[in-house]
Amino acid sequence: MAGLGPTFPLHRLVWANRHRELEAALHSRKHDIEQEDPQGRTPLELAVTLGNLESVRVLLRHNANVGKESHQGWAGGSQHWRP
């Protein structure tokens, strides 16, 4: 979680698997659900990588883009490498 700071609130909630707070943050519509962290990961990609199923479910309910690719070529919803 180091380096996420207050600039990446959704990522911090995903990292801690605080899915109820994540749900509330997304309901407020104050945060960009597709924001990328310094490693180029969206909150959905981070949740999938960490295996935080409840956070994944929350993000999908709020229409996180499963097809969005990170800078490294990963699609957040699939974790499959795309050249």
UniProtKB/TrEMBL annotation:
SMART domains: ANK (SM00248). InterPro entries: ANKRD13, Ankyrin_rpt, Ankyrin_rpt-contain_sf. ANK repeats lie at residues 39-71. Keywords: ANK repeat. This is Ankyrin repeat domain 13 family, member D. It comes from Mus musculus (Mouse). The gene is Ankrd13d.
